[in-house]
Design goal:
The complex is a heterodimer of chains A (371) and B (252). Chain A has 371 residues and is of the alpha/beta class. Chain A has helices at 15-26, 60-78, 97-112, 122-128, 150-163, 207-211, 244-251, 261-264, 296-309, 355-369, and strands at residues 5-11, 31-35, 50-51, 90-94, 118-121, 138-142, 146-147, 167-170, 174-180, 183-189, 192-201, 221-230, 240-243, 270-273, 279-282, 317-328, 335-338, 345-349. Chain A folds into two domains: 5-46 and 151-219 and 332-369, FAD/NAD(P)-binding domain; 90-143 and 221-328, 2-Layer Sandwich (D-Amino Acid Oxidase, Chain A, domain 2). Chain A has ten helices and 18 strands. In chain A, the strands form three sheets. In chain A, strands 1, 2, 8, 9, 10, 11, 17 and 18 form an eight-stranded mixed sheet that branches. Chain A is globular, with a radius of gyration of 20 Å. In chain B, the strands form three sheets. A seven-stranded antiparallel sheet of chain B has the order 1-4-5-8-7-6-9. Classes of the chains: A alpha/beta (371), B alpha+beta (252).
Chain lengths: 371, 252
């Protein structure tokens, strides 16, 4: 019979849940991680690997990201597992004067928060990133941006958590939360009830469904991102690349022309070259419920946008596509911390496109909270 | 042909026609051209610098080897698209066999491997003497094996030892051992194995390996292969250039 009492039960085997399990187990807590499918089966296995600082809004968002960036530098050694961490720097591509104005004000605020971001005219940007189209305005550059393999990150966290004594249970769906006189003290599963001091709900887009029976209404909903994968290529894209319209779509959606196809689908370019040489080219940002299918319209829009900003990619072969469901929140910030009015329940979800970047700091902060 | 059962290997009568006599084998290396199909093909004829191989004007004729002219240089081995040519030397205490080899990873000189007969069954132990990967061989390595003399006419292939050496996903070079390890660590579906090992994420998108992966999962978990959940198939069905997918419509 498995042991069924723990300090902490973590629900969700994505990058957030495995990070919480790792930092909590490392701090000496007894931890069980419950995952309905397998490690990184959901959003963490269907996304890009951006650890990008310069896309974050100055304030708590950027502070969390910078704390996370510092943790990443330690994790590479701590996890003893190749997470394909590459501190390659990032660029945000600027197409026109309107975007340049937004980026200039963004960069000035970031400088005040201690993040150094340069604005490069197109000639200088193209010297650093050869594939950029010559008729663009330019790009920003931030040396603090990096990239990781999200699947290997979740695997690295979970393996290291196990070394620190965590009990990992893939294939174990949580069917309900157990509450005693208003305090959450365990979870129910097909393999029996599990009791604990704290339940950490780190199930991304599935978190609202878990906590709704307790009367907690989390404003997290799935937002689909469709991504193209290319054949392995020789070194082609040197940085992690975003386009400024990603930031416009994220922070100032009212500025977008709703008639343009790529705006309707929320397309903002996100390109990285993975360790095996393939490019990941994303992404749409659509509300499509829990549907993880790719669509021709979405993939076409991503491809067309990529071709416009990076014309050299037109001849590159696409071998696959996939879609992931990002846990969107209305204010663009994750929900991290104890649930108000429900003692024993901790939430760590709603990171949308920042889950990879923010997973170490989320895990670390939750573990510190439960010391 | 009606009444003929194709086994994929030479019959005893066909072998008798192509194997060199014992006295020639004892004199030093000689080519053994195990080609019995009258297909239009003649690269071996041009490959031989000594004029020992003749196909002739009728390109579907079988190659004829003049064993007196053959020096056993082996230049014809990698030229044969059917991988049907070997060079055998039974003049010493042990026999050596040069054979074409198109699997990865390549062995290294000094490796001890399982020698296989023409049907792929283990026939004994062989030592790798040499692995020739010269550019002129166009990707077909020529491996020289040392085998006991009595196996000179038997051994025509080999298998590296250790299951680590068997690749299931060729695109991403994922071995059988890695896939079994992933299943033992909890991957129960083709998608889970894919995520854990990258098997099936390469250029062919799993067309080569997905059945093998299903079978390994089934073996490890005691399921029937049909019960193992397949990975989700997503477009494109075959690779296509990004510009083609983008279509004529620019997104301006």
């Amino acid at each position: 019979m498995n042991k069924q009492t723990f300090d902490i039960a973590v629900i969700g085997g994505g990058v957030i849940g495995t990070a919480v399990a790792y930092y909590a187990a490392k701090a000496g807590r007894s931890v069980v991680l419950l995952e309905k499918d397998h490690i990184a089966a959901g959003t963490s296995g269907a996304c890009d690997g951006f650890i990008i600082m310069q896309s974050k809004n100055p304030g708590p968002h950027l502070e969390l990201a910078m704390e996370s960036a510092a943790l990443y530098r330690d994790l590479v050694a701590e996890l003893d597992y190749d997470i394909e961490y590459q501190p390659k720097g990032g660029m945000i591509i600027i197409e026109n004067d309107t975007q340049a104005a937004l980026m200039q004000s963004h960069v000035a605020k970031q400088a005040a928060s201690g993040l150094k971001v340069d604005i490069l005219p197109i000639d200088e940007a193209r010297r650093r990133e050869l594939a950029l189209a010559p008729d663009l305005w330019g790009a920003t550059y931030c040396a603090a941006d990096a990239q990781v393999n999200p699947v290997r990150l979740a695997q690295g966290f979970s393996r290291a958590a196990r070394r620190h004594g965590a009990d990992l249970r893939p294939g174990t769906a949580v069917t309900g939360l157990i509450a005693d006189r208003g305090r959450v003290c365990g979870v129910t599963t097909a393999a029996g009830d599990i009791y604990c001091q704290y339940v950490v709900a780190a199930a991304g887009i599935w978190t609202p469904g878990l906590v709704r029976p307790l009367g907690l209404d989390l404003p997290i909903k799935p937002r689909r991102g469709q991504i193209l994968v290319t054949e392995p290529l020789p070194p082609t894209i040197r940085h992690v690349l975003l386009c400024a319209c990603y930031l416009v779509a994220k922070y100032r959606p009212q500025d977008l022309d709703p008639i343009e196809r790529h705006n309707r689908l929320g397309v903002g370019l996100a390109v990285e070259q993975t360790a095996d040489g393939g490019l990941l080219i994303g992404s749409t940002r659509e509300f499509a419920g829990f549907d993880r299918a790719t669509t021709l319209a979405g993939l076409e829009a991503v491809a067309a946008h990529a071709r416009r900003l990076l014309p050299a990619l037109a001849s590159v072969n696409i071998i696959r596509s996939f879609a992931g469901l990002r846990p969107y929140t209305p204010d663009g910030l994750p929900v991290i911390g104890p649930a108000a009015d429900i003692p024993g329940l901790i939430i760590a979800a709603g990171h949308e496109g920042d889950g990879i970047a923010l997973s170490p700091v989320t895990g670390r902060r939750i573990a510190d909270l439960l010391k | 042909m009606p009444g003929v059962k194709y086994s994929g290997r030479l019959s005893d009568a066909e072998l008798a026609a192509v194997l060199p006599p014992a006295e020639r084998l004892a004199q030093g290396p000689v080519a053994v051209i195990e080609c019995v199909q009258s297909i239009p093909c003649n690269p071996c004829e041009k490959a031989c610098p000594f004029g020992a191989i003749t196909v002739g004007d009728d390109i579907t004729a079988l190659p004829a080897l003049d064993r007196a002219k053959c020096k056993g240089c082996g230049l014809c081995i990698s030229r044969c698209p059917g991988l049907a040519i070997f060079v055998v030397d039974a003049s010493g205490d042990e026999a050596t066999i040069m054979l074409p080899y198109e699997y990865l990873p390549l062995p290294a000189a000094g490796d001890v491997v399982d020698a296989l007969d023409r049907s792929g069954k283990p026939a004994g132990t062989a030592r790798v003497l040499k692995v020739n990967t010269a550019a002129g061989l166009e990707g077909t390595a020529v491996v020289t094996l040392a085998v006991p003399r009595k196996l000179a006419d038997i051994v025509r292939n080999f298998r590296p030892r250790g299951r680590d050496a068997i690749y299931i996903c060729r695109c991403n070079e994922v071995s059988e051992a890695e896939i079994r390890q992933a299943v033992r660590e909890g991957a129960r579906t083709v998608a889970a194995v894919k995520l854990a090992t990258r098997a099936g994420m390469g250029l062919c998108q799993g067309r080569t390996c997905r059945r093998l992966v299903s079978r390994i999962i089934a073996e490890e978990t005691g399921q029937h292969p049909a019960e193992v959940l397949p990975a989700t198939a997503r477009p494109p069905v075959r690779t296509l250039p990004l510009g083609t997918l983008a279509g004529g419509e620019d997104d301006e």
